[in-house]
Amino acid sequence: METYHGYIESVHDALLIFEACRLGYLSRVQRRLADKERRNIRSGSVFIWEEGESGIRRWTDGYIWSPSRVFGSFLTYRELKTRHKGKIPSPTLSNSDSDSDDRARTNQHDDAIKENGLVKQSMSVTTTTGRKLHLISYYNKDHVASGLLKVPSFDSSLAHIKIPKGFYPDIAPDLFQCAQRFFNHAGKHKPSRPPMIKLAPLVFNNSAQTPPLALPLQDIRLDRLPCSEDHRQLRVLANTFSL
Q1: Are 211 and 125 in the same domain?
Q2: Looking at the structure, do residues 59 and 133 belong to the same domain, yes or no?
Q3: Within the chain, which residues score under 50 in pLDDT?
Q4: 146 and 201, same structural domain?
Q5: Which of 201, 211, 123 is nearest to 168 (CA)?
Q6: DSSP tag of 238
Q7: What global pTM score does this model have?
Q8: What would the pLDDT profile of 157-182 be if each residue is shown by its tens digit?
Q9: b/e per residue, 101-124, with b = 16+ CB within 10 A?
Q10: Residue 119's domain spans which residues?
Q11: What stretch or stretches form a coiled coil here (predicted)?
């Protein structure tokens, strides 16, 4: 029932899955999940559905989630232990009271977050043909940090997928072009994860009495470089890697 299994790290990842479904390489969800299918949701589960063909307007999975928070182009939710039964005082006209209530809600949900639980993220787009598509994905933070979940942008089985410019108008053109330029180039090398640059420590030893100054090692992901002059540097580095 899953559309895909992996980690949706970026808007480009989401668009790849949307486009793979449109072209028939992956399958969209056609109906609501049955109870057994809900129980099979796991870290890495990704589901795509279209409102018209599935009749699904609101996704239900049987989990209890925190209120949504905006994370880039996604809404994210944290899995909670149990549904909180207590009541939060209604907000009043006093700003200080409202602020206190907001903090109470935040603290309440933070306390109820399930240890090692799932994170859910959602995204919706409308195509130029008027079809409204939705993405729901689930992941465990430890699985992402350890690299257990593949990322669509670096999945060789999706390397042939090209996202048509302008077909998903909800996506800002500058964001789309930046991601497309990088991943079109990086796709030639097909790394399992974005390559890392290791910055060696710089040592300055001006005299025998002055101790050397060493800067800490830092990993910089190439896909986090800004989209301007750094693209020129990115191309130089990528050519170096291919030698």
Answers
A1: no
A2: yes
A3: 84-106, 174, 181, 185-192, 194-208, 210-228, 241
A4: no
A5: 123
A6: H
A7: 0.64
A8: 999 999 998 898 877 654 555 555 45
A9: beeeeeeeeeebeeeebbbbbbbe
A10: 4-79+114-169
A11: none
